TrEMBL record:
InterPro entries: PGBD-like_sf (IPR036365), PGBDSf (IPR036366), TAT_signal (IPR006311). It comes from Streptomyces durocortorensis. Coiled coil: none annotated. This is A2(IV) collagen. The lineage of its organism: Bacteria, Bacillati, Actinomycetota, Actinomycetes, Kitasatosporales. Gene3D superfamilies: PGBD-like superfamily/PGBD.
Length: 145
């Protein structure tokens, strides 16, 4: 059994053919393989940060799920609606509102994070450490709702 770990993620923790992994903390993170259609993609947020995002999208973008700190399909559908409709969005999301955290969703999120949260990386649709750090800042930049 290979025990190679990088940033708390073992290779055995990767979902076969996908991009979702579960870190040692139990928080789902995104790698580079392709769209994640698994249930949870917190993009490096802890439960409190994910709850803050859920409360925010509840008030503005039709999130109807539990405030549980788990960014699942319904959370990402609301995030996609926000990325598609927000008037100041620098690169509106143009994909299906399907809750799948694929390259189009990540690229639109990166454009927003670049404009408002200090993201300095490429708008490439890959959720690397810079994207996750900026998403963390987004979650914690506003007072909790």
């Amino acid at each position: 059994m290979e025990q190679s770990r990088r940033n708390g993620v073992s290779r055995r923790g990767l979902i076969r053919g996908g991009l979702l992994a579960v870190a040692a903390s139990g928080v789902a993170v995104v790698g580079l393989a392709g769209p994640a259609n698994a249930a949870v993609v917190n993009l490096g947020l802890d439960k409190q940060g994910a709850k803050r995002i859920q409360r925010w999208i509840l008030t503005m973008y039709g999130y109807k799920g539990a405030i549980d700190g788990v960014l699942g399909t319904n959370s990402w559908k609301a995030i996609q609606r926000w990325l598609a409709k927000w008037p100041s969005q620098p690169r509106p999301y143009k994909g299906a509102i399907d809750g799948i955290v694929g390259p189009k969703t990540i690229a639109s999120l990166q454009a927003n994070l670049k404009k408002f949260e200090g993201y300095k990386g490429a708008i490439d649709g890959i959720a690397g450490p810079g994207t996750k750090a900026a998403f963390w800042r987004k979650a914690y930049s506003n007072p909790p709702v």
